[in-house]
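Re: zinc ion structure - here you go.
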Amino acid sequence: MKKNNLIILGSSLVFILLIVCLVMPKKDPEKLTTNPKNDEALVKIEKLKEENSDKELTVNRQFGDVLIYLNFLKDGINTSYFVDYASGEVKNLEDFIKSDQLEAFQNKITELLKLKYPTFVVEAIMAENVNKEYHLEDGSLVILYDNVLLDFEEETILSLRVNFNEIKDYLTFAVELDTEYENEDGYLYDKNKKTVAITFDDGPNGSRTNEILNILEANKAHATFFMVGNRMKSGSSTILNVLNHNCEIGSHSYNHTSMKRQTLNEVMADEAKTEEIYKSITGKDLLYTRPPYGAVNTEIKNSLTNFIINWNIDPEDWRYRDKDRIVEHILTHVSDGDVILLHDSYDSTVEAVREVLPKLYLKGYQVVSIGEIANLKGRTLELNTIYRSFKKS
Ligand SMILES: [Zn+2]
């Protein structure tokens, strides 16, 4: 087993433990209120309590004349029973979904999974051998997915918490609703999670830039694209597509001349030209500049009117044009707060991004734009400062 695999295995175990802790119902004895009048159900429930007497009964709740739900806990593992109130039979949660709504219910669950997880994770969850386990908690249904195969032949447990508001119309039993709930936010960036910014220089590059946007979207990731001014007009639809994907754009000069080889007046005139073209396309101002080759002198640094963003991880994708080398370089060098430099000019880079984003996710990273990493790391950007990373100082 390679070192990388061990690291991933380690972080996944932490992940599993976290999930098990998160989904454990809170102990709340006041919720133990069931007193069914139905004999069959009563008998069955007593029997279940006896069979599970080595476990702690954590939930015992009746939902109208339809369902009695029991949950037992032992060694961090929950065992749930859905007892039919009328017959006393133990059934599956899906038996308490309106029969003509089962497909709609399943579609809703898939939609919520896609909001929460990257596409490769959703696909792994939807695989045939994955076991589903349902638990009812205050205000929500929690689904545990067991045996999910994400990578390296290693199985893991994932979960989805579904607010009752999302599924109330599909259920045959009435539930108490959280009136504050509006809608599922989906994937949210977390300031406590490891974070890297990914950046692409030298675009816009039409189909390659657009394909990178698709890959970013599938992985719940954002990026910042540093574009060359004289490419912007012909690439205007790509520019708009970048903004539609909630990614950011910065200046990468007007014609990729090293600023150190220009006079200050030439640099400032070129920046103004790039800004003007960008504004004519988007109606917005550029916030960032990445000087070509990362090269500035003190005079230029002190004169630029955008935040100056360089990088600290450089796989030299333009030099090697080798997918595996790019992926390997990123995975062996990455740490929290890094800024990765890539170029959306090469197919090898597009393929490297396709491969590395799921791997970064499995290593516990969220991949974001420059504005997002600054925000997540609590940094207020300042002018005349060269940013290479956003590590906690
Ligand atoms: Zn460049």
